[in-house]
Design a protein that fits this description.
- This protein is of the alpha/beta class.
- It has a single domain, classed as Rossmann fold (3-Layer(aba) Sandwich).
- It contains 8 helices and 7 strands; from the N terminus they run αααβαβαββαβαββα.
- The chain has helices spanning 2-7, 11-18, 22-37, 55-63, 76-85, 138-155, 172-184, 225-235; strands at residues 45-48, 68-73, 91-95, 109-115, 157-166, 187-197, 207-216.
- A 7-stranded mixed β-sheet has the order 3-2-1-4-5-7-6, sandwiched between helices.
- Helix 6 links the parallel strand 4 and strand 5.
- Helix 6 packs parallel to helix 7.
- The radius of gyration is 17 Å and the shape is globular.
- The structure holds S-adenosylmethionine (SAM).
- S-adenosylmethionine binds at residues 5, 18, 25, 29, 49-52, 73-75, 78, 97-99, 115-119.
Length: 247
């Protein structure tokens, strides 16, 4: 998949790739945008990771000229397409693979967001539906892959920075793995919701994605899956139904 993203050279190529999952993309980005906009203050600096061509940041930058946005993606072609397509004084679009130190922004941000901007976190939820042999336990996969994301975002955050992320995690055990990986890096779960994308002509079943927010504090030890479930329940006002299981 990474190879596909790197081959993109025009806006049309970029948009046709995203159109494969457009219902998911629109619904998750809209929900993340709503949460982000509710919290923006003049002078804030916002970082988007795994931003594709940076369309979410570009929309938010147009609506909030008093806030600065940096949208980043690992694929050089995507960042280049976005930088050419979207221009605004309060918007930068740049290449950054957050698993690498190279290219890491040299500043800290008040709000960070990531809308499905990760490699698939666990093989049981791979969009291609084939297993990744390297990981026998999906929880290990989530811990390893989301660990890189939480480490990288922590390195460009300050105490109190919020991190809003829509993730492709379909069960309580996988959400718990991500929540505990985050806790170990000081990212404390501070808000929760879910995005339901109804079945359509291109998807045979409803899909549900957690939309979670963390606030940076001190690293903390892991908690049980039951405690994660009750924390999510409390923070979402009962809107997120983890125990029922997600697809
Ligand atoms: C499914 S797309 C989602 C893009 C966009 N956020 C959206 O909602 O339409 C996943 C994106 O994450 C990017 N990505 C995956 N791993 C990354 C990494 N380590 N660093 C930065 N970007 C990454 C990919 O290049 C791709 O653009």
């Amino acid at each position: 998949m990474k190879g596909v993203y790197k081959r993109i050279q025009t806006l049309e190529m970029a948009l046709s790739l995203v159109s494969v999952e457009h219902e998911v993309s629109v619904a998750t980005n809209a929900a993340a945008a709503q949460r982000i906009e509710a919290q923006l203050r003049a002078g804030d600096r916002v970082l988007e990771v795994g931003a594709y061509i940076g369309a979410l940041s570009a929309c938010l930058a147009a609506a909030h000229p008093e806030v600065h946005f940096l949208a980043t993606d690992q694929a050089p072609a995507l960042a280049a397409v976005g930088a050419a397509a979207f221009r605004a004084p309060n918007l930068e679009i740049a290449r950054w693979d957050y698993t690498l130190k190279t290219g890491c922004p040299k500043r800290s941000f008040d709000l960070i967001c990531c809308v499905l901007g990760t490699p698939t976190l666990a093989e049981s939820h791979c969009i291609c539906r084939f297993p990744v042999p390297h990981w026998s336990d999906p929880r290990e996969s989530v811990a390893e892959r989301s660990g890189a994301l939480f480490d990288a975002t922590r390195s460009v955050a300050h105490p109190g920075t919020r991190f809003v992320a829509a993730l492709r995690l379909g069960t309580l055990e996988l959400v718990a793995a991500a929540v505990n990986t985050a806790r170990g890096r000081g990212w404390m779960l501070s808000w929760a919701d879910q995005v339901v994308v109804p079945a359509s002509a291109s998807m045979d079943t409803d899909q549900t994605f957690p939309l979670l927010e963390w606030t940076l504090g001190e690293p903390a030890s892991p908690i049980s899956e039951t405690d994660v479930a009750s924390q999510v329940d409390e923070l979402s006002g009962g809107r997120v139904d983890l125990v029922a299981g997600w697809r």
